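Response to reviewer comment R2.3. The reviewers asked that we include at least one raw input/output pair. We reproduce the pair for Lambda-carrageenase beta-propeller domain-containing protein here without editing.
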Amino acid sequence: NSPFDGRAEVAATTGLLDAPGGVYVLDSAGQLRWPFGVEASVLDTALGDVDADGQLELVIGEWGSFGDTIYLLGGDGSMWWKHQTDGSVEVVTIGDLDGDGRRKVIAGADDLYVLGSDGHLLWRYPTRGYVVDVAVGDLDDDDLRGVVAATAYPDSCISAFTAYGSLSWRHQMEASPTIVVTEDTDGDGGDEVLAGSLDGTVCLLDGEGRLLWQHRGEDPVSGLGLADVNADGVKEVAVAMGDHLSGGGVLVLDVGNGA
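Raw output as returned:
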């Protein structure tokens, strides 16, 4: 029951639909350090120093008919705070949006939620579709970081928000998006937005939401990342395709044009 100590640890989430779930934290030898149980499934976690005290904390989100809560846990498994949402929590992440040194907790559920390090609600944006993924990035090279959210049917789109919750832009998708990633793909100091969707589409948007390129695959996009795959000094877009209902595979695309 000691705090996270910088050595390798594993946080495993559990739960199925409305069955009770939780998170189990294991040490590098596979021994249980501590469990934390909740009333429903846990789909996502985020690890980081939320309150700038030099220690790592763990954010978890509860998903299911009886679960709609965001939790912040200390490194010893104690609950620091919880925040009720109005829908099951699909995704959580952590990021310092306004440069004050304290990371905010960002969560996607029925709406987009941003919480302070003490758990109070900073802002909430009423999305018209369920939030399935979120990312944090500096879209306009102004030293403030915004939030990008992917929302599913009936409003399949990618939306960008300022650090303080104002909508910056929306990009409509033909099918429900599955993942969104922010990264500076062209070296201009501002992040671009990569997104993937259920119909196999991968697209790159600039910091103002304009479509730079689009590639249509055959299976749902389940993962996106940037890496120098062929060791030529330039990063490519690596795309994981497929889900439990379809085939799968990996695509590698040119970051400049999507080919």
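Residues 130-258 form a domain with the Methylamine Dehydrogenase; Chain H fold (CATH 2.130.10.10). The chain has a mean pLDDT of 92. Further pairs are available on request from the corresponding author.
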